[in-house]
Target: Bifunctional protein FolD
Amino acid sequence: MMTNIIDGKSIAAKLRSRIANEVESLKQQGIHPGLAVILVGDDPASQVYVRSKGKQTKEAGMNSFEYRLADNTPQEALLELISKLNQDNSVNGILVQLPLPRHIDEEAIINAIAPQKDVDGFHPINIGLLSTGGKATIPCTPLGCLMMLKDQLGDLSGLKAVVLGRSNIVGKPMASLLIKENCTVTIAHSKTTCIEDECRQADILIAAVGKPELVKENWIKPGATIIDVGINRIKDTENNSKLVGDVDFINVSKKSGAITPVPGGVGPMTIACLLLNTLTITLRQNNLSIPKWIINQE
Ligand SMILES: Nc1nc2c(c(=O)[nH]1)N[C@@H](CN(C=O)c1ccc(C(=O)N[C@@H](CCC(=O)O)C(=O)O)cc1)CN2
Ligand SMILES: [Mg+2]
Model:
């Protein structure tokens, strides 16, 4: 079977260009969206992602406010900064890059962000709204996955979806979104018995477990659509570092109908959806209507 490689990089580029057009017309009405990103510590991957976020925010015509705090920043100081940003009218969205250093309680930090400025959609209010079908901010990675699925398959109604992984950031919100799309959804995880059997039932398989190349060719239903959320750095046979997903891409792609690559699949969509969320929350904060092309925000 010839698989279709879902080009997240190109879908993300098109999305960013639509966002930039919308931002341009907002600016003509005197509204200038602003995104504040806070990085605590010096995790090398997080530094790359935060730099990318700042660059793409500016390229979309939005204001980017970047806060880089030392690894030993006390939790209280971070809470104070969030409180200041919550009250700052030039800041529409606030994001704290994860993971945080060990001495900081992630939950306390997420809960301190004003829900209407929670551009990541991680606040319990937004998670609750998503699961009850309300006006939530949807976490960027699952939103990006859904956009690629709809781009590939159109209507998802009646399809069987298996989500591998039950994290608050990806697995659980992904399942909520797929239920909203009328899929029949199974969440599988480390304690699921016969995880392969579950996967073999899936028309749509979302792999988000952080285990390099876990999903094998014989786990896949022929023609299934595979979304690989994993970003794992491993050593190849010559001891060079390389990036792989949670799916054994070379072999699974012989059997799938469509598949996202790593890199160049879900990752670029995550940042494009962050810009999309910044635009959406800015529109909401100004009581403006959400354009029809922005999915799942009606
Ligand atoms: N506050 C948040 N923290 C984290 C999130 C998030 O959505 N909000 N997600 C991840 C990290 N992340 C964005 O923050 C992110 C990860 C990966 C990529 C990406 O484009 N990856 C590239 C490969 C990059 C590489 O070479 O390392 C790709 O897949 O093509 C973008 C954003 C955890 N933290
Ligand atoms: Mg911690």
Remarks:
- The longest strand covers residues 34-40.
- The pocket of magnesium ion (ligand 2) is lined by residues 100, 102, 104, 106 (CB under 6 Å).
- The mean pLDDT is 97.
- Residues 244 and 259 are 13 Å apart (CA to CA).
